[in-house]
Design a protein that fits this description.
Elements: E1 34-35, H1 37-47, E2 54-57, E3 65-66, E4 70-71, E5 81-82, E6 86-89, H2 91-94, E7 103-111, E8 125-129, E9 141-144, E10 173-176, E11 186-187, E12 198-200, H3 208-216, E13 221-225, E14 229-235, E15 239-240, E16 251-252, H4 255-266, E17 269-276, H5 280-290, E18 296-300, H6 310-315, E19 327-333, E20 335-336, E21 340-346, E22 351-356, H7 360-378, E23 388-393, E24 399-400, E25 406-414, E26 419-422, H8 431-435, E27 439-443, E28 449-450, E29 455-460
Parallel strand pairs: 1-19, 7-8, 14-17, 14-18, 15-16, 18-22, 20-25, 23-26
Antiparallel strand pairs: 2-13, 3-13, 4-12, 5-11, 6-8, 6-9, 7-10, 19-21, 21-22, 23-29, 24-28, 25-26, 25-27, 27-29
Bound molecules: adenosine monophosphate (AMP) and magnesium ion.
Length: 462
């Protein structure tokens, strides 16, 4: 999302004063003016700080930001080892070997991966060796089993079957058909990383290969910024949990499921609280109960101006509302969908809370625009925004957009063609269309229509 200066959105309702560009959140103005998407996001990001680092077990650190420089304690590989199944030899013993005149060596033992005691490879002898096994003393190179007759006699009569440690497999002979150079098929100690090297720098995001490297160098725990714990609460007396029968006038609660999934997808540990009825006291006590396990609270529904929009009522007196800086500001944004939004902090610890509108598409778009960046900021990530690209609108008609509002239409993006096609209409109840979209088409405030072939900004939501 661009954070450049916004054009002043048209007033809505007509009596609302035009916003001062770049003006920070001003308490008391919340009800009276329209805020731009960028202003609202800037206020959220100004209030959300990265969580304090903690030490986590490796599997729990996936996706987290590393806050320490990790140095390599001991070389990797820790010892010279074979990259092939074959025979560990002295190069002089196989010099000039051919199919016709093979070098015939006495097999003095087997070396499996994990072998602790190693046979000495002296002149005229060899040890059968498996991939990853330590190069035994005296050996200079490994001859792949394919360059041999596979060995005859003793325990090494058949090719590379697993063998025990020590000198099992000793006693036979092997014919080697080709010479090798010193160090051939040997992975040198420290050829991956050396002791003292920087394995990973602070600021690295731990993806699977980074987790793998940490494990390879023996790190079981690392200092990272933890995943934020995000509590998702939906509100609405009409809401029923999926799987239960629907009564008259009821609908399934989809928002809390979508938001929980989206929060997890953004990197959070998400807790879904079942839908709360439209009762301010119930909602208030539910939120208070959740404060203990939340780094961020997200509610949906109850933020417009209907008689049962209880989120505003409940959030005016949650937790310790006397704390300086605590409180939720409810605003109207110059966007569509998702005009009503609440943001602030609650409880003695000032846990940030975002109150999203209830319409499922408004709710999801609001998550993408405001909650996802907040989660990623809590994680300390630099890359908090979805990728934004430009694409040609592939529509069969001109689309209209409310003047003065930034509109986010659902779309299907075609990277190869560089086009985006609208999916479904602008209605904020169209969850099926949302489920078939992978992009948000942005129609800026100053445009009231956008025709086929127009270049538009597209947010890729995956
Ligand atoms: P509200 O913002 O509470 O007035 O809700 C606006 C619309 O969204 C109404 O049609 C609600 O029934 C619907 N809605 C609210 N919450 C949810 C939810 N959790 N899941 C699905 N639809 C919802
Ligand atoms: Mg409601």
């Amino acid at each position: 999302m661009s954070s450049t200066a916004e054009p002043a959105p048209a007033a809505d309702p007509p009596s609302a004063p035009a916003p001062a560009p770049g003006r920070p959140s001003a308490p008391g103005f919340g009800q009276d003016r329209l805020w731009t998407v960028d202003e609202h996001l800037a206020d959220i990001l100004a209030a959300v700080h990265p969580l304090d680092p903690i030490e986590l077990q490796l599997p729990d650190a996936q996706g987290c930001l590393l806050v320490e420089d990790v140095t390599v304690p001991a070389a990797l590989p820790p010892f010279d080892n074979s990259s092939m199944d074959g025979y560990a030899v002295r190069t002089a013993d196989v010099a000039g070997a051919t199919e016709e005149f093979p070098a015939v060596l006495t097999v003095v033992g087997d070396v499996a991966a994990g072998s602790g005691s190693l046979p000495e490879v002296g002149p005229g002898t060899t040890a059968r060796i498996m991939t990853g096994a330590p190069l035994p003393p005296g050996a200079e190179a490994v001859v792949p089993v394919e360059w041999t007759d596979g060995g005859t006699g003793g325990g090494a009569a058949t090719a590379m079957s697993p063998a025990g440690p020590g000198d099992r497999g000793a006693g036979g002979e092997v014919r080697i058909h080709r010479p090798v150079e010193a160090r051939a098929h040997v992975r040198a100690r420290g050829s991956d990383v050396r002791a003292g090297d920087l394995a990973l720098a602070a600021g690295t995001v731990l993806g699977p290969p980074q987790i793998g490297l940490l494990a390879a160098i023996g790190r079981g725990r690392v200092r990272v910024r933890p995943r934020p714990r995000v509590v998702v609460i939906s509100t609405g007396s009409e809401l029923v949990q999926p799987g239960e029968p629907l009564g008259a006038g009821q609908i399934y609660d989809s928002n809390s499921f979508a938001l929980t999934a989206a929060a997890r997808d953004a990197g959070a540990i998400a807790y879904r609280v079942g839908a709360v009825t439209d009762d301010a006291d119930t909602l208030r006590s539910t939120i208070e109960d959740q404060l203990i396990r939340a780094d961020l609270i997200v509610t949906t529904g109850g933020v417009s101006v209907g008689a049962y929009d209880v989120v505003k009522e409940a959030l005016s007196s949650v937790g310790d509302e006397d704390e300086a800086g605590a409180g939720i500001d409810f605003r109207k944004l110059a966007m569509q969908p998702g005009r009503p939004q609440g943001f602030g902090s609650i409880g003695p610890e000032h846990i940030p809370l975002l109150a999203l509108p209830g319409n499922p598409v408004s709710c999801y778009v609001s998550f993408e625009l405001f909650v996802r960046p907040a989660i990623r900021a809590l994680m300390g990530l630099k890359d908090i925004h979805r990728p934004v690209v430009r694409a040609t609108l592939a529509a069969d008609r001109t689309l209209s957009s409310p003047a003065g509002r930034r509109q986010f239409l659902r779309g299907a993006y075609d990277a190869e063609a560089g086009t985006v096609t609208p999916v479904g209409g602008a209605g904020s109840h169209l969850v099926a269309a949302l489920a078939h979209a992978d992009a948000l088409i942005v129609v800026p405030e100053e445009s009231s229509e956008v025709g086929p072939g127009t270049e538009v900004e597209v947010v890729l939501i995956g």
